[in-house]
Amino acid sequence: MRSLVTAVIAAIEAVAVALAGIAVVAIPAVLIWVITFGLAAEPAAVAADVTGVWLLAHFVPLHFSVSAEAALSLGLAPEALDFTLSLAPLGITLISVLLALRAGWRFAGRGGVGAMGVIGGIVGFGAVALVASVFAAPLIEWTAMQAALSAASVYGVASAAAFLVRAGRDGHPWWEGSVRQALRAIEYLGVRSGAALPSRAAELLRLAAAALALVLGIAAVAFAVAVATGYADVTALAQSLQLDPIGSLTLFLVQVALMPIAIVWSVAWMSGTGFAIGAGSSVTPFETLLGPLPALPMLGVLPDGWGERGAFAPGALVVAALVLGVLFARRPALRRASWPAALVITVLAAALVGLCVAGASALATGSLGPDRLASNGPDAWLTGGVVALEVGGGLLIGVIAGRFDAAKVRAAMPDAIPGIGGVRGARPAAAEAPGAPGAPDADADVNFEAAVDEALELGADRRSAATRWSDAGRPDAFETGAFETGAVDTEAHDTDAFDTDAFETDAFETDAHDAGAFETDAHDTGAFDTESFETEELARPARGSARPGTAADPKPGATADATPGADELTDEAALLQAYAWDAESPTAPADEEPPETERRPGWRWPGRGR
């Protein structure tokens, strides 16, 4: 019962949509009949004209016969004319299409029952078209049933497309079941990545829709620019017709109905293939060849050929597609996909865009009058193929450029290449051990202050100095960026800083370093990772103050009272004092090593001659 109610509601809505389209045509026609012709024409003829134009918008061709007198009054040769008018006013078509899309999307929200809404809409729209074809029988070349089927298919295809898109987005049970069956069939054929196909298909449709919208947008901008530059010609053509206000309004509405055709023709012009207005004519960015044209003001915007500069038109499509490819390459679906999958998605999206352009070009092709005006519009397959190549080329370049990761390329290159490895490139642990090849020589003279200053200038470690030295108690303190740069390997490593007597003075053998504080259980905890390591016991002397154990400070173990700052922490004595918590007992002579039992655990620089 619910399905039947949905179908009835959809049929009523489709009838309203069809009547709305007919009303758009009937209102100006009735105004002309009443005001301009004073009801001189027969009502049946007016009804035939109105319904005939509406059916023409749904791709039902019309047939016209013009007598010799009528042809002479129109400025043509005084002979009878019989011709077919098949170029559909796509502006009226869009009314039915957009309302059908809205209906299909809404009925898809009802789940599987909404499918009856699509069927009911087709039936209701076809019924109105059947009645309209009866009124337009003197003009249409097809039978009434053929005309009704043509109009109903326009509404039905649009409604069904919207229904399927929302069903896939919302994950209807019947849709997911169909997808599972399709995946099983694909896996049966040997395709291993079948599980990823739904997400990749969705990304393909997004990319194709974005590329198609981009192409149509560029064409619309090009048409607007042509109207702005050719406004004088358009105005001159409109004034030459000498129409009354009602006629001018009708002409304006006719040109609005033909506006989508102008956009499609602009796509063909931008692609470089161009279009024709009459047999033997050609309008492309490179040259323009025209014959006699209908007295339609909008044809005054036709541009002249640009010669060699016409290559800028297709080039604009390529560049725009390139930018779009770069943007889509940064999306998770394409960024995580493998290179073959990303390239296949891009190529298929470009092919889908080409098919859509070919279909639109076919719909925007038809007859405008007798003789040479029987052929108008672009070559559908040629235009679609060229657009697919241009858009596909731009998308491929953009996707490749967007997926290119310079950081990964640098990481894959050997560290020996200068400038490729990062400033913080890790050195092998064996090279950092004392005595290992590439490690600092124990007997070498190191100017630590110069080394740290150079490391800071290179930007190796951007933390504050206080934080850096507070981490010095951890075993990995020498693995920070400051000691991984080339600053320690410079010539400053060979200075005389470690040849002074200060390094072996009694300052490092005082009781302060043999205190029981280092023999407590806290020595085995994370206390060395806390701020306790920066207490007053290990306070660094201020820059320029006397260092303990030197001539300026004869008292061993004396420390400065000044609080260390960022510059003070780079002083040589501060660095030496920070890393000397396991110095020998003060009771042992300076030139003798304490017994193994008296040594304290921890790291220290190798002594001279060890």
UniProtKB/TrEMBL annotation:
<feature type="transmembrane region" description="Helical">
    <location>
        <begin position="83"/>
        <end position="101"/>
    </location>
</feature>
<keyword id="KW-1133">Transmembrane helix</keyword>
<feature type="transmembrane region" description="Helical">
    <location>
        <begin position="249"/>
        <end position="268"/>
    </location>
</feature>
<feature type="region of interest" description="Disordered">
    <location>
        <begin position="532"/>
        <end position="610"/>
    </location>
</feature>
<feature type="transmembrane region" description="Helical">
    <location>
        <begin position="341"/>
        <end position="360"/>
    </location>
</feature>
<feature type="transmembrane region" description="Helical">
    <location>
        <begin position="311"/>
        <end position="329"/>
    </location>
</feature>
<feature type="transmembrane region" description="Helical">
    <location>
        <begin position="207"/>
        <end position="229"/>
    </location>
</feature>
<keyword id="KW-0812">Transmembrane</keyword>
<feature type="transmembrane region" description="Helical">
    <location>
        <begin position="113"/>
        <end position="137"/>
    </location>
</feature>
<dbReference type="InterPro" id="IPR045931">
    <property type="entry name" value="DUF6350"/>
</dbReference>
<feature type="transmembrane region" description="Helical">
    <location>
        <begin position="275"/>
        <end position="299"/>
    </location>
</feature>
<feature type="transmembrane region" description="Helical">
    <location>
        <begin position="143"/>
        <end position="165"/>
    </location>
</feature>
<dbReference type="Pfam" id="PF19877">
    <property type="entry name" value="DUF6350"/>
</dbReference>
<protein>
    <submittedName>
        <fullName>Uncharacterized protein</fullName>
    </submittedName>
</protein>
<keyword id="KW-0472">Membrane</keyword>
<feature type="transmembrane region" description="Helical">
    <location>
        <begin position="380"/>
        <end position="401"/>
    </location>
</feature>
